[in-house]
Amino acid sequence: MLSQDELLTRLLDFLHRSPSPWHATANMAARLESAGFRRLDERDAWSLTPGDRVYVTRNDSSIIALQLPETRLEALRMIGAHTDSPGLRLKPNAAQTAAGWLQLGVEVYGGALLAPWFDRELGLAGRVHVRHPDGRLEGRLLHVDRPVAIIPSLAIHLDREANSGRALNAQTQMAPVLLQGGEEGDLPRLLKEWIAEQHAIEAFELLDFELGFHDMQPPARVGGKGELIASARLDNLLSCFIGLEALLASDGKQGVVLVANDHEEVGSASACGAQGPFLGDVLRRVHERLGDGSEEGFIRLIQASRMISCDNAHALHPNFQDKHDAAHGPALNGGPVIKVNASQRYATNSATAALFRDLCREAEVPVQSFVTRADMGCGSTIGPITATELGVPALDVGVPQWAMHSIRETAGSEDVAYLTRVLAAFCNRPELA
Fold first, then answer.
1. Which of 98, 281, 293, 330 has the most CB atoms at less than 10 Å from its CB?
2. In the predicted model, is pLDDT for residue 166 greater than 90?
3. How far apart are CA 203 and CA 192, in angstroms?
4. 3-state DSSP: the chain helix, strand, coil percent, rounded to 5?
């Protein structure tokens, strides 16, 4: 396994190159292929044999990687994460003008903290679809990796109550500024220029796009001893990265599944989200080829399997300690966090938590617990959704972090290696009961 510094260098590079779910999925796919995994297409008939290492994507924004055992397929060690993060997405007819400026209308994707988006140099990234002169339609990734827009704050002289707390209106107050003197027709022209520049294509028609803004400040190690990581999209690309590292560091003897779904931040109800059929479709096809193909056999496989859903946890904030239950305030660099909620907002139960605690003991990694205050609401993850859709015994864990859903989040640098070691031990574990 890599040293902590090597692991963090690779993490920061992955975060920088993954400004959208589509880029994150493409980068994970490239890493899998370089490690010998074979890509499957859902439209084709699959040929699978014991010991295969394969992966499949859906919508180009969700990915499932499978390491199939060389012996009989009896249980799967599943690691779950999600590729999407809260942010600002471009509207289809985004161009608007005001006070001599071309601005871009946005939608808020997920539960984003809005205030940190002001006064940031913003790039643009996502997926576009074009038509070539021969009539062929093609999807391409676009990553404008330079500052092209900004959302300026209103000066405090013009809003003396700004520091007293006020609501932000994403429709009227958060349109990024793009071009002085620009007109509405300038946006498609600029998009075509950026596409042509990035992909070296000239004659094409831009048909549609799914694009979002991203912070241009690069990921970094922070702190007097580099004990922190600061970056956009730590929730939840950090879990995607750790899950992939654990899979690739495993010994390859056991059946392992890594699933990273899109659309978790907006409820997971999509064809490629955790509430959709993606994971079930893939596992049933695997079972048909390597199991006995029966419905009973599939249920037996799922019940013998376990899922660790990885999504970051709220760390104890030194300035807001009263926001945590006094006995459940996870510390940065204190190890992975088991997340518990009696109302099943997390999938953890005592049996799955016991398995994880034993894995932490085996990997010599500290472990923590998080339960939200009884007088506060609790978020959720793909864990309960996947458990509901598939029936697999599951639990929710995560790396502790500050500033969840901000444009720039913070986590502990030691926790990356901690959770990677535990998940690698999970991938290698012969018995799951």
1. 330
2. no
3. 10
4. 30, 25, 40
Span 38-86, pLDDT tens digits: 999 999 999 999 999 999 999 999 999 999 999 899 999 999 999 999 9
- What pLDDT score was predicted for residue 43? 97
- C-alpha 135/C-alpha 69 separation (Å) is 44
Backbone conformation region of residue 111, classed left if phi is above 0, alpha if psi is from -120 to 50, else beta: beta
Query: In the chain, how long is the greatest CA-to-CA distance?
Result: 72
**Is residue 161 pLDDT above 90, yes or no?**
no
CA distance 26 to 21: 9
Amino acid (one-letter) located at 155: A
Q: What is the CA radius of gyration of the chain?
A: 22
Q: What is the DSSP string of 91-148?
A: EEEEEEEETTEEEEEEEEESS---GGGTT--EEEEEEEEEE-TTS-EEEEEEEEEEEE
pLDDT of 116 > 90? The answer is yes
Secondary element (H or E) of residue 19: none
- Name the H helices within 232-349: 234-249, 278-290, 295-304
Among 77, 142, 55, 39, which residue's Cα sits nearest to residue 425? 77
What the chain holds in terms of domains, given with CATH numbers, is: 4-85+232-428 (3.40.630.10), 87-215 (2.30.250.10)
CA atoms in the 13 A half-sphere facing the CB of 294: 4
Q: In which band, very low, low, confident or very high, does the pLDDT at 351 lie, cut at 50, 70 and 90?
A: very high
pLDDT bin (cut points 50, 70, 90) of residue 162 is confident
CA–CA distance, 312 with 383 (Å, rounded to integer)? 12
Angle between helices 234-249 and 4-16 (to 10 degrees): 130
Structure tokens at 88: 């600002």
My answer on whether omega of the bond before 236 falls inside 30° of 0, hence cis, is: yes
Q: Is the pLDDT of residue 1 over 80?
A: no
CB distance 228 to 409 below 8 Å: no
DSSP H or E segment with residue 419:
helix 413-428
- Token readout for 367 is 């472990």
User: What's CA 97's distance to the chain center, in Å?
Assistant: 34
pLDDT (tens digit per residue) in 190-234: 999 999 999 999 899 999 999 999 999 999 999 999 999 999 999
Arithmetic mean of pLDDT, 239-251: 97
